[in-house]
Design a protein that fits this description.
307 residues, alpha+beta, seven-stranded mixed sheet, five-stranded mixed beta barrel, 23% helix, 34% strand
């Protein structure tokens, strides 16, 4: 049985969060009398599911079960409820809260959650998106080692300012990196905690390399694997930009079921009015994140990537 003794306040994803589950990865606290955007509750009540596997989705409600860990529900873009199961573990639950649950919260609030990493470069945010295993966090880590700062890893919240400038909201100062990447960077993985037992992906804090304020979105780079030995960059045009935003929306498979496909198209259109998209093809044969960083920065200086 879990005893709820305290509530915690945080500032992340552009939201003020009040949580009964401690979330030490996040920045906080915000002042108690601040407006609370999202509440996270540990529920003693059973959360009903239409099916054990996959997502239960209604117009303003999403729920899913992680076997033996917990059942999670997300309502109205305002509330996350966690019903612990027999093997409940706070560290594991946090992964789902800060990933899938916050991604759904953002969609319910009609904020675009991109799936990738975002880096601050010369006063703008650059999103690195891609399929699982493309090397998004690894490329972001290479930027960090060159002195640039992380804004977000995994879920990238894209909002609009009052003058309709696309903005990236900071999430929290942590990366998720595979042991292979840590080894290539010369970092001892034993210093970090694995995300799951027997898992070779690790939580890597980057508190001293974190940009903690909203920042204009300057560009979106889709990272893909190629068969060559070097890195190539090209600007994508027309409908490719829409494809990139749709394909790399976090939990984008839920858009249709949430009735948000039309919203997503309009939101993407407005982003693409002022933000260019690019494809970075990296070698699947060699470790190329440093080469990618150099080529992206050189292209920026030459004016070939960012208008």
């Amino acid at each position: 049985m879990i005893s709820i003794k305290k509530k915690y306040t945080y500032d992340a994803f552009g939201l003020n969060i009040l949580s009964e589950l401690p979330l030490p990865e996040l920045n906080g606290p915000v002042f108690p009398d601040d407006h609370i955007d999202v509440s996270i509750k540990l529920s003693k009540d059973k959360i009903e599911l239409e099916q054990k596997k996959g997502f239960t989705v209604l117009s303003h409600y999403v729920a899913f079960e992680v076997p033996s860990l917990a059942v999670f529900s997300i309502k109205n873009g305002k509330e996350i409820a966690i019903a612990p199961l027999k093997d409940f573990d706070e560290a594991k639950a946090r992964l789902y809260v800060l990933g899938t649950c916050m991604g759904v919260i953002l969609m319910q609030q009609q904020t675009l959650p991109l799936h990738g990493s975002a880096i601050a470069i010369d006063g703008r945010a650059y999103a690195i998106v891609g399929n699982s295993g493309a090397g998004k966090s690894t490329l972001a880590s290479a930027f960090i080692q060159k002195g640039y700062k992380l804004i977000s890893d995994d879920v990238i919240p894209v909002t609009f300012s009052n003058d309709r400038t696309p903005m990236v909201q900071p999430t929290y100062p942590q990366q998720k990196l595979w042991e292979e990447s840590l080894t290539e960077f010369g970092i001892d993985s034993r210093k970090y905690n694995p995300l799951f037992e027997r898992e070779t992906k690790y939580s890597v804090p980057v508190k001293n390399s974190f940009h903690d304020q909203p920042i204009p979105l300057g560009g979106i780079f889709e990272l893909v694997k190629g068969s060559g030995e070097s890195v190539e960059i090209r600007q994508t045009n027309g409908l490719e930009g829409f494809r990139i935003l749709l394909h790399h929306t976090f939990r984008g498979s839920l858009l249709q079921r949430l009735g948000l496909k039309g919203w997503h198209f309009i939101y993407s259109s407005e982003i693409l009015k002022s933000v260019n998209t690019f494809q970075v093809t990296r070698s699947s044969l060699n470790f190329t994140p440093y080469e990618s960083v150099t080529k992206i920065l050189n292209a920026m200086k030459e004016g070939n990537v960012i208008d």
